[in-house]
Amino acid sequence: TKFAGLDLQGYKTFAKETNLVFPAQITAIVGPNGSGKSNVADAIRWVLGEQSYSLLRAKKTEDMIYSGSDSRARAGMAAVSIKFNNVSKWLPIDYSEVVLTRRAYRDGKNEYLINNQRVRLKDFSELLGRTGLSDRTYTIIGQGLVDTALSIRPDERSKLFEEAA
Amino acid sequence: TKFAGLDLQGYKTFAKETNLVFPAQITAIVGPNGSGKSNVADAIRWVLGEQSYSLLRAKKTEDMIYSGSDSRARAGMAAVSIKFNNVSKWLPIDYSEVVLTRRAYRDGKNEYLINNQRVRLKDFSELLGRTGLSDRTYTIIGQGLVDTALSIRPDERSKLFEEAA
Amino acid sequence: MKKDFLETYKAVSTEFSRMFTRLFNGGSARLMLNDEDSPIDGGIEIEARLPGKREQGLVLLSGGERSLTAVALVFALLKVSPTPFCVLDEVDAMLDESNVGRFIELLKDLSSETQFVLITHNRNTVSAADVIYGVTMGKDSASQVISLRLDEVDEDFIN
Amino acid sequence: MKKDFLETYKAVSTEFSRMFTRLFNGGSARLMLNDEDSPIDGGIEIEARLPGKREQGLVLLSGGERSLTAVALVFALLKVSPTPFCVLDEVDAMLDESNVGRFIELLKDLSSETQFVLITHNRNTVSAADVIYGVTMGKDSASQVISLRLDEVDEDFIN
Ligand SMILES: Nc1ncnc2c1ncn2[C@@H]1O[C@H](COP(=O)(O)OP(=O)(O)OP(=O)(O)O)[C@@H](O)[C@H]1O
Ligand SMILES: Nc1ncnc2c1ncn2[C@@H]1O[C@H](COP(=O)(O)OP(=O)(O)OP(=O)(O)O)[C@@H](O)[C@H]1O
Ligand SMILES: [Mg+2]
Ligand SMILES: [Mg+2]
User: Fold this and answer.
1) Are B103 and B79 in contact (CB under 8 A)?
2) pLDDT digits (tens, 9 = 90+) for D39-81
3) Which of A80, B139, C152, D51 has the fewest CB atoms within 10 Å, i.e. is most exposed?
4) How many Cα atoms are found within 13 Å in the side-chain-facing hemisphere of B135?
5) Among residues B85, B81, B79, which one has the least CA distance to residue B24?
6) Residue C38 contacts by C-beta under 8 Å, 6 or more apart in sequence?
């Protein structure tokens, strides 16, 4: 399995550090309305470099950070790390595990890290491009958006195929 | 109960004459995908005078008429009748049961009937206006459209209130 | 005209807050006029605060939370200005079990004034109905309808 | 560029027809290029014929039929050009029991090349998973996650 794990801290409703592992081919996420399931999907989209806030059900950077509740203070930062198993070296980087991290702060600043080293967004995007996960619209099918492939214009549909090509 | 029944013939997937009665306050309609449940909702919308084909998941009059299958010929006409119990005379017409019928033919012609008498669309709409059912956006909440009230613009939302006023 | 609108608006606004808190078993929500002097053109805004959470934009709400908030508004309109009947086509599709329960409870209250037709794949919703119709596609590719009792509704008809 | 696109298009087109017929247990569907000489700008159209029915516009399809047709296209893209993983958030919300069954079967085939994360309220979908995470909102209004076995998934987590 290439996709090994996801760590969230301060991201949307994940105030506490949460570590999810993905050892299997099929993982299900279940739970009541508003519990945070789609927020996990947003976290994945966000750490993979999403810059469009509308696709993240948000308006600005601050919306990514846990905003607090009656019983818990808000967070100062959101951090999501996605872990890849790279034993087969499918990623052109000399580590057997590759961790991509994105952090955001309340002043709107974003930071990008590869295996805990700060890197420029340029290098982060470059490595992401090698995963085959960036700019693939069909990697994450959002809630309520399953029939997007049918409702988009024919020329927008061609874009999906360009991604696959 | 004011809403007494619905008769469909030749309407979308209702090739055969179908009579539904609504003696209760809460009626459920269940069944597999594509069986015709939303088509019943479309039939109600259509007989109540809907002129916008996009709200009927269609493009033209002909789409209202059963188009046939491998094992059944297409229909020449679609007819939907909605029956109201008028014993209390909530409708200003001297009948204890009021039946509004709409028919459509393949040449695009529509016919309107009140208690089986042909009437002008003007008179049909006029009586419909008295039912409190025409031009009420919230009478029929279509599939996939439950959160429309949230996604429309604030001034469009005012229209809902104008209808209720 | 504007006077009718404002009267209706106030009544629906009160009901909306009530319905929201009942459906979410807590929290609070309200409607607001963008322009009190030009209420119709100014438009109506919605603010919602879920139980235990801070007030946030509607855009952050989950799928089920959006459905339920919209239902609260529709129910408020029906309470203030009932229509003879109302058809709800799979409005419960994204609701979890406890939210469906509260939705059904509130619907039963409203059903004294308005007849409801509920198109659904949800077992709990069906159990709230007095009459159940099962629709299937026949071998001749035409719809056929049968009347069902609750104990006859099985996996062929419901999820 | 155009050559790659046409090759990919042909492969996805073949898979899409196959996936559609498997998901619908019959019927047929195909993709079409609006302009063979300018395939990218001309755009791609979808034609679908459901089992036993005549070919009709996509606009007439039911909610469940639309979901399943879109899934057939996504699965075709994944088959031709797999990504390391794919997240599907409640794509089964409108599917009836038999369609969920075929969706899951096809997903299992694809899962040999792609890891899937399925967010769902559906019992049948959950039973196809190897690993299940239950997410709940804690009393402190923060999400908490626990690992669940299939027999531990009850109405608190699923419909
Ligand atoms: N920055 C934030 N801080 C705190 N809470 C947030 C933040 N962003 C979003 N939320 C909350 O997250 C909740 C939505 O979570 P999510 O969409 O993951 O739910 P879900 O489990 O997918 O539910 P459903 O089954 O209804 O789709 C909303 O109640 C929203 O208030
Ligand atoms: N004029 C017509 N003639 C024949 N079939 C039609 C016509 N119009 C629509 N249909 C068929 O009706 C079907 C859709 O029915 P409907 O939307 O009522 O399904 P549904 O029971 O609501 O399903 P779901 O549970 O997926 O929402 C489509 O398969 C479409 O081909
Ligand atoms: Mg969700
Ligand atoms: Mg439907």
Assistant:
1) yes
2) 888 899 999 999 989 888 999 999 999 999 999 999 999 999 9
3) C152
4) 12
5) B85
6) none
